[in-house]
Design goal:
8 helices, globular, alpha/beta, single chain, 239 residues
Length: 239
Amino acid sequence: MILASSVEISAVMPAFNEEANLEQSVGRMAAALAGQARTFEVIVVDDGSRDGTAAVLERLKAIHPSLRVVRHPINRGYGAALRSGFAAAHYPWVFLMDADNQFDPSDIAALLARAADADIVAGYRKQRRDPLPRRLNAWAFFTLVTILFGRLARDVNCAFKLMRRDLLERMELHSEGALINTEVFVLARQLHARVVEVPIQHYPRTSGRQTGANLRVVVRAFSELLAFKAEMRKVEKAA
């Protein structure tokens, strides 16, 4: 277990049109980290939101001194948002959690309890609380991921992970979309990273709109997956 008196954490929260969720999610994140870390920052990446997300974040910066905002002028995708957040992180541990209030950030305590012996502590949803279409898309996508790359993790796309920043810095991440988590696990395996998995609670979204079942997002994810596999084949042949 890593003691709260010593751990330093950069929390990365990607957000796209999350105006209705940010006040609660940022506040809960700041409160959770205040009780779990010696030093922390909360980095919200506004990925080209078209609602009132930017205005809410400006207001929240006056309330939460730990809050930093990274903005994309246009919507670039989930992977691009995470890469921007990772690049902005200052502290040795990077904690990933989406801004949609489907996770309780205080559950980071369970991840920290396993962090001393891991490079990635990956949460997995004990029961996924997403609508059926999104769960079906996820099943199809990760069936293909397993066929192409073997088992990577129990819940690859679970947006509740604690990762060593120095490990992320050794990865050349390129994904612009939902493939980013698969890319992280594949590269972590190549780097012989230690991965520990921990069960966590998942909650239904009550505000805002999910994009995971959007046809454009789904097609982009499958296209990126096949392109990534082709790139890994080239790397393997060159090795």
